[in-house]
TrEMBL record:
InterPro entries: NAD(P)-bd_dom_sf (IPR036291), SDR_fam (IPR002347). The lineage of its organism: Bacteria, Pseudomonadati, Pseudomonadota, Gammaproteobacteria, Alteromonadales. This is SDR family oxidoreductase. It comes from Thalassomonas viridans. It comes from the Bacteria. Keywords: Oxidoreductase. GO terms for molecular function: oxidoreductase activity. SUPFAM superfamilies: NAD(P)-binding Rossmann-fold domains. GO terms for cellular component: membrane.
Length: 282
């Protein structure tokens, strides 16, 4: 049993919960932070029942004071923390650039991007004081591939990637490591937080997530391995990893493939003409 210490934002459900159970199974002491108290307490109880040392603390990543309170709690209970997973996020609002309000942009950036910034700002001084630490920042393949109609989400996740690449070099002299995670569709509850100006899009995305062969547990396994080995990129989906490489090295081919995928995803469903056909005269 390792006895190491981990803190996970958005740890009450979805990928955060899968990460919590992965690390608990490896002997880590686990703290989960989340805005949803009922889910958080239930997850902490389940972790404890599995034999882990775990606790929940209510935490909203848009509030620096909440993250500072978590840090003080971790110092008080465990004298510090070894690994911070900046996982909390929302799907934001899908739609054309001229139909998504600045208010919706501000919400998704405040949680998805600035939530990660706040997590890194809060715990980097503690890691420096300890002489070690590791950040895992959850971004998305959307931050690499940038499909249309998802501009605010794409920008928020691209920002997490840029931040992580910056900190990779900035924090290395302090023995602080970092990984950035860029999953595509997988089985999670992210669509719960999606708003859309496009009829039926959240339902279509939910179906894509449900059909994915990749689970939250698979991605948690990849995160665990990357943190153990110090690998920066965590790219669990082979198809999206290939698309990213195409974008970099064969951009014309990438544009052609994206046009096909976008047409399929965003085209409205075809009406069933068999049910509305007019009765022929007779």
């Amino acid at each position: 049993m390792s006895g190491k210490r981990i803190f996970i934002t958005g740890g009450a459900s979805g990928l955060g919960k899968a990460i919590a159970f992965k690390y608990a199974g490896a002997g880590y002491r686990v703290c989960i932070g989340d805005r949803h108290r009922q889910r958080g307490e239930a997850t902490a109880e389940a972790l404890t029942a599995s034999g882990a040392e775990a606790f929940f603390i209510e935490c909203d990543v848009t509030r620096t004071e909440d993250l500072l309170a978590v840090k003080e709690a971790l110092i008080s209970r465990w004298q510090g923390v070894d690994l911070v997973i900046n996982n909390a996020g929302i799907a934001g609002t899908a739609g054309p650039i001229d139909q998504v309000s600045v208010g919706d942009w501000q919400q998704v950036l405040d949680i998805n991007l600035l939530g990660v910034v706040r997590g890194c700002q809060t715990f980097a001084p503690l890691f420096k004081q300890q002489g070690s630490g590791y950040f895992v920042n959850i971004a998305s393949a959307a931050g690499l591939i940038n499909a249309p109609q998802m501009s605010s989400y794409n920008v928020s996740k691209a920002g997490v990637i840029a931040l992580s690449e910056t900190l990779k070099h900035e924090l290395a002299p302090f023995n602080i490591g970092i990984s950035v995670v860029c999953p595509a569709f997988f089985q999670t509850n992210l669509a719960e937080s999606m708003k859309s100006t496009i009829d039926g899009l959240p339902q279509r995305l939910s179906r894509l997530m449900a059909r994915s062969a990749i689970s939250a547990e698979d991605i948690a396994d990849d995160i665990f391995t990357s943190a153990q080995t110090g690998s920066f990129w965590v790219l669990s989906h082979k198809a999206e990893r290939r698309l990213w490489l195409l974008k970099r090295y064969l951009p014309a081919v990438f544009d052609w493939l994206m046009k096909k995928k976008v047409t399929k995803l965003f085209s409205p469903p075809k009406p069933d003409n068999s049910k509305t056909a007019a009765t022929p005269p007779g």
